[in-house]
């Protein structure tokens, strides 16, 4: 047992939706006292740093209701039950962008908001992109516009706060770092 571990005494699902559920746990703290933890349960997701042969980053713009605005992001989507993250990455890349990749490389995984959610996000780099003649269709409730920008333009969009979500900012900074390291 880790010195900070909290022991779950009781767990109750308050809401179960299509994408998330809300769970409230009663926990015993390391000092023996009790507390409640409200948690959003999420199946996990993937995001793809897709880079074209001419070194452009593939982005999508779509409306995000929780943010009440359209956001510019790297392609992403949630894991389906039992689906491996790399298969989700390939599927989401095809659905959102119409591209298939020759090479898919794992970058990292991280928790998106560990203070209240268990969502883990797996980020991949996709290269060797080829436009599909018959691309998979996006989800019926998903409306996206494709953008392809240079790394410099992507950095500018972050600097101007036109890209403001964590996964995309991380991916662009990762691409910047790779460029610096490859230049040495």
Automatic annotation (TrEMBL):
Q: Name one GO molecular function term.
A: hydrolase activity
- UniProt-listed Pfam families: NUDIX (PF00293)
Q: Which residues form a coiled coil?
A: none
> Which Gene3D superfamilies does its entry note?
Nucleoside Triphosphate Pyrophosphohydrolase
Tell me the CDD domains matching this sequence: NUDIX_ADPRase_Nudt5_UGPPase_Nudt14
Cofactor(s) needed by this chain: Mg(2+)
By its UniProt entry, which InterPro entries does this protein fall under? Nudix_hydrolase, NUDIX_hydrolase-like_dom_sf, NUDIX_hydrolase_CS, NUDIX_hydrolase_dom
Q: Which UniProt keywords apply?
A: Hydrolase
Instruction: Identify the residues that the record assigns to the Nudix hydrolase domain, covering every copy.
Output: 40-171
Q: Which family does it belong to?
A: Belongs to the Nudix hydrolase family.
The family database entries (PANTHER family) matched by this protein are listed as: NUDIX HYDROLASE DOMAIN-CONTAINING PROTEIN (PTHR11839:SF18), UDP/ADP-SUGAR PYROPHOSPHATASE (PTHR11839)
Protein known as? NUDIX hydrolase
